[in-house]
Amino acid sequence: MPNQHNINAVESLTEKFKKASSIYVTDYLGLSVEEVTELRKKFFENGVEYKVVKNTLAKISAKNAELENIDEMLSGPTAVAITYDDPTSPARIIKDFTSKRSLPEVKGFIFEGKVMDIESFTKIANLPSQEQLFTRLVADISSPMTKVVFALKNSMSNVLNVLNNLKETKQS
Question: What are phi and psi of 68, to 5 degrees?
């Protein structure tokens, strides 16, 4: 008979799984308390929730949230990184964090409702953030306008220089 704590945990995790834009399943075993704290801080700063979960409860929650083929990921010590906004941010954080360490190891992930293979993780982790993409878009859109402004400014400066030179030669 399940206890109330586990029932509440399943309900909470099911709601999170339903709302999530991406879910990254990791093995955290081997990280020190300081490293886990640092990782959680980085996740928190980027709007990502990182929590240790019981595999049985996560499997039930995944089934309730209609996430399929996730059971293989849920074995051994498991923590999940859940984001509701930018689905690539956990991948970038994990990639950055593991560049100095070997953990956490990604067991698998769900990206916008689709279970992805581990080979896709590197591709996702190398994608630029939404903010970087918006910055590139604005720069690309404003670039032609900036060039026109400089061209007009240079043309006007050249005309002004010619007129000033003509004025100086007539005064001499």
Answer: -105, 160
Whole-number pLDDT of residue 1: 57
Report the predicted TM-score, pTM, of the whole model to 2 decimal places.
Answer: 0.77
Tens digits of residue pLDDT in 85-94: 989 999 999 9
Report the pLDDT value the prediction gives residue 47, as an integer from 0 to 100: 94
The residue ranges of every structural domain in the chain are 4-127, 129-172
> How long is the chain?
172
Cα of first residue to Cα of last residue in the chain, in angstroms, is 106
User: Would you list the DSSP string of 8-20?
Assistant: HHHHHHHHHHHH-
CATH number of 4-127: 3.30.70.1730
- The 8-class DSSP code of residue 126 comes to T
